[in-house]
Fold this protein.
Amino acid sequence: MALSLILFSGVNAQDYEYIGAKKCKMCHNKPDKGEQYNKWAAGPHAKAMEVLNAEEAQDAKCLKCHSTAGAADEDMLTDYITVEEGVSCESCHGPGSVYKNLKIMKSREESMANGLILPTDEVCRKCHNEESPNFKGFNFEEYVAKIAHPYPEGWDEE
Ligand code: HEC
Ligand code: HEC
Ligand code: HEC
Ligand code: HEC
């Protein structure tokens, strides 16, 4: 049972690859749409590798939560994502190689059918938990507010 679950998720995982924050930036950094890339870049997740020293930055035990690329299976990585970009878009929104396509992205339903995640509490708690040597507790509403990067109200009205 456990084995078949692992095999099954393995098959799914191979469909999607990590493309890195710069690819998302191409479409998600417009001021009138909320500048998601700039907001992320100014926040804690983009700096998650900067808080590690040189030795820790090589340590899989730390990379697991401090870097999207550092935590991912190697066969899901592209050349576009770097370990140094820290915790980037795809740790929360899922690997984007398929949903990044404009036609797919325009539909929430299709995006989600192609790997896009709109993260809940559970996604955050993969890293915000007691396994972290510096765990400070986690409250979803409070923490989401600190990293919020929404579309401005009325962005899709003419
Ligand atoms: C080719 C342009 C393009 C690229 C590249 C792209 N997106 Fe999008 N994305 C869109 C468009 C268009 C929408 C629909 C809303 C809008 O018009 O901005 C969207 C919507 C979204 C939404 C909101 C979904 C919803 O229904 O609430 C998320 C989250 C998102 N994108 C994340 C990402 C991430 C993460 C990446 C990189 C892995 C990415 N996008 C790459 C164009 C793009
Ligand atoms: C289970 C995920 C997880 C692991 C494993 C992990 N960290 Fe972290 N780390 C976090 C989170 C989440 C934070 C943010 C603090 C918070 O809000 O709980 C953080 C914050 C930090 C900080 C910032 C200082 C602070 O007090 O906020 C340092 C330094 C750090 N971690 C070092 C490490 C080192 C070194 C390792 C490897 C030995 C490591 N972490 C392993 C998740 C993790
Ligand atoms: C892949 C691991 C990972 C995931 C998933 C993740 N985080 Fe984090 N988060 C971190 C790390 C590592 C830090 C510490 C970065 C630093 O110190 O610069 C952090 C820091 C933060 C901070 C700053 C905390 C402080 O003490 O100032 C907030 C707020 C935060 N995360 C919110 C969230 C929310 C909300 C989610 C889910 C939507 C989430 N995180 C998902 C790894 C993660
Ligand atoms: C720490 C987790 C985390 C990271 C990293 C992250 N996001 Fe998000 N993102 C969220 C959460 C939580 C939401 C709100 C989801 C919802 O509305 O249900 C969100 C919403 C969005 C939306 C939709 C905004 C709206 O108003 O509907 C877009 C677009 C988006 N993110 C793009 C990005 C891009 C691009 C990056 C990287 C540059 C990124 N996100 C990085 C957690 C994250």
